[in-house]
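Colleagues,

Please find the record for the two-part complex below.
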Amino acid sequence: MPDEAAARPNLLRALRETAVTALLAFGLFLPLIGFNTVQNIRNELVLETRWPLLFTFVAILAGLRFLYLVVVAPLMAERARAPSRPAALATLPTTLPSWTMPAVIGFILVYPLLAMLIAGPGAGKWIDNFGIQILIYVLLGWGLNIVVGLAGLLDLGYVAFYAIGAYTCALLGKQFDLSFWMLLPLAGILAAFWGVLLGFPVLRLRGDYLAVVTLAFGEIIRLVLINWKDVTQGSAGIGGLPRPTFFGLPFNASPDGFAARLGLEFSPLHRPLFLYYVVLAVVVLTAIVIGRLRRLPVGRAWEALREDEIACRSLGINTTNAKLAAFASGAFFGGLAGALFTARQGFISPESVNFSESALILAIVVLGGMGSTVGVAIAAVVIIGGTELLRELGFLKQIFGAEFDPAQYRMLLFGFAMVLIIAWKPRGFIGMREPSLVLKRRQVIDATLREEHG
Amino acid sequence: MSAPVPPILRVEHLTMRFGGLVAVHDLSFIAERGAITALIGPNGAGKTTVFNCITGFYKPSEGRIALQFGAEHLWNELDALTQSGKRGRVRRDGALYLLERMPDYLVSQRARVARTFQNIRLFPGMTVLENLIVAQHKTLMRASGWSVLGALGTRSYRNAEHAAIEKARYWLEQTGLTERADDPASQLPYGGQQRLEIARAMCTDPALLCLDEPAAGLNPSESAALSDFLRAIRRDHDVSMLLIEHDMSVVMEISDHVIVLDHGIKIADGTCEQVRNDPKVIAAYLGVEDEEVRAVEAEVGI
């Protein structure tokens, strides 16, 4: 076999490169990790060395490099040599077995019950932090996906609509004592109204310019919320917000509460359980509406707008209306998500609506694959679920010692994961576009075929 | 032109300035109904600028661009309409529009002017079929009750969508793209993309079709096929055409009427035969003899 003859020099080369890597890592980490400054009892700075830690880092890096050269690189070369099918015209992925979809839906439906079975009284965290929170981000991702993924309008201030939805709920709920069920659609409608208001001045802008203006809009909303203290109570936030009731029955331990009236034993889990299904219902409804919108002329106009705005206008499409419709519908779902957020927290403050939220939602859309409903949902699960899981890394203390606080490494690990995912799938999890209608044979379109027109 | 055929388009004293540059100067011409009118001229003559003025992408500095379809007597209302300051008049039997007063999308939506582009502008990531469906936006939008009825999935919208697909299917057959209906538009060969762009423009149900260099980049046999295609469109559909083209074989073969522009000024206007033999046209395309230049220079005293 010629491969065996080639393997020996390859191994030598790998060892050599590993040594180089180790040397580089040593040089780089020596000042970064090798030394540590400590204040001693007399308030003097003392230089300490941390050789074991330094060598651990160098060894890990060298090991990874060696593994890459010996295992991963040949595999990738093998794959590159194999005849690849044309990427652009891949037929629908058939690798997933047909029961995947029902299984996933079934799992989502029974998830909170499963959590209660397994975690018992501690299930609240699993239902709330994982279940409800992820679903709210799915909703946000889908809303932004209309604006960014379908219509191709880069919006960096999307969280503003989330804020408007949440504060609509909070202020109207407190002022007029409206029930949550009234507030939910109101939050969506008001957010959509603001979406149109934002839409008007930015209609002529595209790309980077639009991004900057929407970013500013997000900040304006946040700063108004902080500084308009008479109305919004500033950074203190608004608490004690109306929680959703079960057909008028509140979830509390009172004799009029849900548990007492239904003859159940009171449990703090009832509320998150109920809320989970409420949010799930809103998410399902949203999925249906967005699926319909894509197959309507307005949805096709959005995608056409993303592809070529001038061609759109030459075909008699009012691009102004199409953009406003995109902003309004995106904002509507953002507003709904904001209302559901207040239902979950019972509290809202400007802290929850800063720029990093916008960035997070945009990351979900980009990572999921712009325009892909399923992809965005997967990305929301991965990103939000992932960051929440990173809170659960207490066991790492057993490895790295009691001083190690995994929470501090959350964002670092999160960043690493993002880089890896984007390197692996540059167009997001689902970088394929499914046509909105088909004449003969259904096939998906690789996102690389889209061109950007300024 | 004292032709008995009524005009579809009447361009009067059209001037377009970009800062100090006069791209089109005092241009007047008429495009006859049901005819193919060609707009030719050397590079930079201002042909595409004229197109952009007609289709509403540019607002002309001066001049009037009137388009009329349906009953001819509406032309009599042209001056009254101009005075009124409105964009157009719509009667039960036809309509008259002043295109220079309309934004680009309304020129297509109301005045039924469709266009193609010099550098093809398809929706590259959408399928061939979707390209043809997007072009039927106006009809489908109305049928979907501005999305409300469509979102509810009413039968009337589904019927309208079905009709739109049938129309697309007709154009797929006409362009020979039926087999590739579900492929992304960017995957088509160049000639296919060009035919698709024309078919997409035809899907808007235009009264006037403006084609900007449809034969650019085609070989002679493809050019001949394009001529046949354009003639078939005119035969089977009630549409007039305005054509910018450099390929003289196409122009001379299909045009009923040729207008020659040079440096933004009309230098000739007539049938193919008349234009072909016009010394000014020959001079514009081929340049003039040195002696002639010297003679003119002597005359003006340089």
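Residues 2-81 of chain A form one domain.

Comments are welcome before we finalize the supplementary table.
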